[in-house]
Each structure stands twice: as C-alpha cells, then as structure tokens.
Design brief:
Helix content: under 10%
Order of helices and strands: EEHEEEEEEEEEEEEEEEHHEH
Shape: globular
Number of strands: 18
Family: Belongs to the glycosyl hydrolase 16 family.
Function: Catalyzes xyloglucan endohydrolysis (XEH) and/or endotransglycosylation (XET). Cleaves and religates xyloglucan polymers, an essential constituent of the primary cell wall, and thereby participates in cell wall construction of growing tissues.
Distance between the termini: 33 Å
Subcellular location: Secreted, Cell wall; Secreted, Extracellular space, Apoplast
Strand order of the largest sheet: 3-6-15-8-9-10-11-18
Protein name: Xyloglucan endotransglucosylase/hydrolase
Largest sheet: 8 strands, antiparallel
Keywords: Apoplast, Cell wall, Cell wall biogenesis/degradation, Disulfide bond, Glycosidase, Hydrolase, Secreted, Transferase
Number of helices: 4
Radius of gyration: 18 Å
C-alpha cells in the first residue's frame, strides 16, 4: 500500500511483523560504545543516549562497541544525512579484523549516499574466515526516506542463521547450512558504526564522489541494542541477557532459530519489491556461482 508520494516517489507500507526489538532493552550510546576514530567529529547528546557521527573534509568518524560478542542481536536506530550525499557511506557492522587481519569475519549494513534526486541505497554483505575475495552483496531501495526520522537497522546472528532487518522487517536471511558453513562468521566480533568517504566506489561505482560543499554529513544514532554472548578478557564466552535474569544465550531461543510465517511474508515482500541486486544472480561476475546460491 502506498502511503505517501513525494519528490522521491512512492513510499510503501511494509507488512506487519513481530517487533524483535521489543524483546531487548535499549541502551545509551555512551554505555555501549567507545570512540573508534575521528573523535572530534563525534558529538554526544541527551546525556549520552544519542550521538552524531560526522563526516567532513577533515575526517570521517566512528564508534566501536566496548565488548566483543559471539552471536547476538544488534540494533541501531539511525537518521541519515539529507540532501546531496553522493560518495557518503554510513556503515553499521560486525567485524574482528583487528584480531584476525587475514582470517576475519564481518557482517555489514552499508548505507550508500546518492546523487541529486536519487535515494540512499542499502547494501548488505558478509565474510567468514577471510573469504573477502567472494563478495556476497545484496542491494535494496528503502521504502521510506531515511533522512526524515530514525529507523532501526538490526543484525541477528546465531548458529542457525544471520538475519538483516530494517524496522523489524527481515530483508535477508543467510541460513547456516553445509553450503556456506566454511565461510559462515564464527568468531567473536565488535559492533562498529562509521561515517566515511567512499568516493571511489559508493555511488554508481565512484561516478559521483563526495561533494564537501554539502558537508558536514551528520548521521544521528540512538536506540542501541546489544544482546549476546560476550567474550571475556580470559577468552571465555559469557552469555547473559540484560533484559531478564536468564543466563541463556539471548538469541538461541525458539523465536530466534527460524523466521515465523509473518516474518517470511515480510522477507518475501522486501525482496520482491525492494531488492535490485543479489550476488547470486550476477552471472557476469561469477561464472560459477558460490555454492550457497545453488544449494537446495
């Protein structure tokens, strides 16, 4: 159903889905993150419950979680920069490249800025065990204007599957099966949020670089949820859940092992109406598709 028509075209209302974000407590930014880089371009507000992450001509900037997590539910509510944002990249992702530089895991949301009159693009990707030579990108147009308000971007990662969700609507599911097991992310990761200059590739393969006449590019973040098994300094893994007294892995229960029928409906809607690129359909790039693309 079309609910708004604007200069960017129709904005669509997604199907009703379970709100997984309601299962966990929301945290402030300063409870959860440390400065990753570009500290002068990070501005805390509302007593640390939110933060502005800024790109300007001097630097990009980023935050990194205070803990490393093995499996979990990770959310950030983001409001993106408006106007001419070509070449700008806002990333919300999991990575352990600092610990495993040649064998790292990564799970990515990358929001790619746009040239005039074009919308932001949402790209998802993942690597496991250093499998960076095979890109597993999928790209989507959003069904809302991400510059007008905050929207939830969520990564669910457990032994059963990885699910990317936007406002609780699943847009991509990577099932942990035999075909993908060798490259399935398997080591504790940090959660990172950055804004940076991706002029060389982000907007139409680098056709439109960042125009700093429109700077600063300000991304505002709040609505933090970080629930998972935390890697301790002695390398042990401690599973706890802030929102209850349970000591169980918070994302290994029945509601997180597989998508419900309602969530499957949302996933189908998002992929049919809004996905415009999948590596599994890119036969020009891959003469032989990665094995998970053809697994039954």
């Amino acid at each position: 159903m079309i609910v708004v028509v604007s200069c960017r075209g129709p904005l669509y209302k997604p199907p009703e889905v379970e709100k997984l974000t309601d299962h966990f407590s929301r945290l402030s930014v300063n409870q959860s993150y440390n400065v990753f880089y570009g500290g002068s371009n990070i501005h805390m507000s509302n007593n640390g419950s939110s933060a502005e992450i800024i790109l300007d001509k001097s630097s990009g900037s980023g935050l990194i979680s205070k803990d490393k997590y093995y499996y979990g539910f990770f959310n950030a509510a983001l409001k993106l920069p408006a106007h001419f944002t070509s070449g700008v990249v806002v990333a919300f992702y999991l990575s352990n490249s600092d610990v495993f530089p040649h064998n790292h895991d990564e799970i990515d949301f990358e929001l790619l800025g746009h040239e005039k009159r074009r919308d932001w693009v949402l790209q998802t990707n993942l690597y496991g065990n250093g499998s960076v030579h095979t890109g597993r990108e999928e790209k989507f147009y959003l069904w809302f204007d991400p510059t007008l308000d905050f929207h939830d971007y969520t990564i669910l990662w457990n032994n059963h599957h990885i699910v990317f969700l936007v406002d609780n609507v699943p847009i991509r599911e990577v099932v942990h099966n035999t075909a993908i097991s060798s490259v399935y992310p398997s080591k504790p990761m940090s959660i990172i949020v950055t804004t940076w200059d991706g002029s060389e590739w982000a907007t139409h393969g680098g056709k439109y670089p960042v125009n700093y006449n429109y700077a600063p590019f300000v991304t505002t973040m709040k609505g933090i949820e970080l629930e998972g098994c935390i890697k301790q300094q002695n390398s042990s893994i401690s599973c706890s859940r802030r929102s209850t007294s349970s000591s169980l892995d918070p994302v290994d229960g029945e509601g997180f092992m597989k998508l419900s029928q309602q969530q499957m409906t949302g996933l189908d809607w998002a992929r049919r109406k809004h996905m415009f690129y999948s590596y599994c359909q890119d036969v020009k790039r891959y003469k032989v598709l990665p094995p998970e693309c053809t697994a039954s």
